[in-house]
């Protein structure tokens, strides 16, 4: 579409009608300037953090101290001291109130006791029914990573009413039993020694587990008895090795209590295998017709 361009009035009397309006020159849109390019931003670099101020040994000259209660000896009763029970609590001071780490050694080193690394509480590491050593020396130390307590705190622990392992008297032994023994017949009476504080559980087992069905333990008589009639047969097996142990639930006997059971032969009455026998004899001379029944015994 052409753009309208105004022009000046023309004196037609002077120039006549030959004067015409010139077409306007077409407008040309100038090319736009190239787009501006954003410069890449300079990468930001995180400044290195200021170094942490670490506590130095030079500015921690205050010593740690550990003190126990009125005495350095503790007595515990094995019958009433369970695992994790508190034995002693360490009382400590650190002027700067730093967090302390505790450690402990024991003589003898039987792991009866443990110490909380963060709280310094000494606890039973076992049920004291299983304890067999009476006296222990515990050496406790603590550190705040810069200072270590000096001297170390020493605690002596004495255990009373200690449990003793039950035992079976009279074994090892060799016992003879006839093959004709009946159910309930005594094989051997177990003589057990114990302090009497805890219930006992004797167990006897043969070398071959298949033989365990032939005998049983009678708690009323403390005896090993035959379990059923015909359990033993000399011709089949003439000896057994039986190991007996007894436990009070915490400690057990040595396990070396072995009973050797010897089955003796009994002269048994012969019997026929059948109620009736049939024998066919040919007619012949006197004393020559035979029917051998011994083969059927």
TrEMBL record:
<keyword id="KW-0472">Membrane</keyword>
<keyword id="KW-0106">Calcium</keyword>
<feature type="region of interest" description="Disordered">
    <location>
        <begin position="1"/>
        <end position="63"/>
    </location>
</feature>
<keyword id="KW-1133">Transmembrane helix</keyword>
<dbReference type="InterPro" id="IPR015919">
    <property type="entry name" value="Cadherin-like_sf"/>
</dbReference>
<feature type="domain" description="Cadherin">
    <location>
        <begin position="169"/>
        <end position="272"/>
    </location>
</feature>
<dbReference type="InterPro" id="IPR050174">
    <property type="entry name" value="Protocadherin/Cadherin-CA"/>
</dbReference>
<feature type="compositionally biased region" description="Basic and acidic residues">
    <location>
        <begin position="37"/>
        <end position="48"/>
    </location>
</feature>
<dbReference type="GO" id="GO:0007156">
    <property type="term" value="P:homophilic cell adhesion via plasma membrane adhesion molecules"/>
</dbReference>
<dbReference type="InterPro" id="IPR002126">
    <property type="entry name" value="Cadherin-like_dom"/>
</dbReference>
<dbReference type="GO" id="GO:0005886">
    <property type="term" value="C:plasma membrane"/>
</dbReference>
<feature type="compositionally biased region" description="Low complexity">
    <location>
        <begin position="21"/>
        <end position="31"/>
    </location>
</feature>
<keyword id="KW-0325">Glycoprotein</keyword>
<protein>
    <recommendedName>
        <fullName>Cadherin domain-containing protein</fullName>
    </recommendedName>
</protein>
<dbReference type="GO" id="GO:0005509">
    <property type="term" value="F:calcium ion binding"/>
</dbReference>
<keyword id="KW-0812">Transmembrane</keyword>
<feature type="domain" description="Cadherin">
    <location>
        <begin position="93"/>
        <end position="168"/>
    </location>
</feature>
């Amino acid at each position: 579409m052409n753009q309208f361009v105004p022009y000046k009035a023309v004196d037609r009397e002077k120039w006549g009608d030959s004067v015409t309006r010139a077409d306007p020159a077409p407008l040309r849109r100038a090319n736009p300037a190239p787009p501006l390019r954003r410069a890449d931003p300079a990468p930001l670099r995180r400044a290195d953090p200021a170094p942490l101020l670490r506590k130095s040994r030079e500015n921690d000259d205050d010593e740690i101290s550990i003190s126990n209660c009125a005495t350095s000896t503790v007595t515990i009763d094995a019958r009433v001291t369970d695992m994790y029970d508190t034995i002693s609590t360490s009382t400590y001071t650190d002027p700067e109130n730093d967090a302390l780490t505790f450690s402990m050694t024991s003589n003898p080193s039987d792991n009866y006791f443990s110490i909380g690394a963060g709280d310094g509480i000494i606890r039973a590491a076992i049920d004291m029914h299983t304890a067999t050593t009476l006296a222990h020396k515990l050496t406790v130390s603590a550190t705040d990573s810069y200072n270590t307590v000096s001297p170390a705190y020493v605690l002596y622990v004495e255990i009373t009413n200690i449990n003793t392992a039950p035992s079976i008297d009279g074994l090892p032994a060799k016992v003879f039993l006839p093959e004709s023994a009946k159910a309930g017949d005594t094989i051997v009476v177990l003589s057990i020694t114990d302090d009497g504080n805890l219930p006992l559980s004797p167990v006897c087992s043969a070398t071959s587990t298949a033989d365990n069905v032939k005998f049983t333990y009678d708690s009323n008589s403390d005896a090993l008895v035959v379990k059923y009639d015909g359990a033993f047969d000399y011709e089949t097996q003439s000896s057994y090795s039986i190991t007996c142990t007894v436990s009070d639930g915490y400690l057990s006997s040595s396990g070396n209590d072995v009973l050797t059971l010897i089955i003796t032969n009994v002269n048994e009455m012969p019997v026929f295998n059948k109620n009736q026998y049939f024998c066919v004899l040919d007619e012949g001379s006197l004393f020559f017709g035979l029917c051998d029944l011994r083969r059927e015994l």
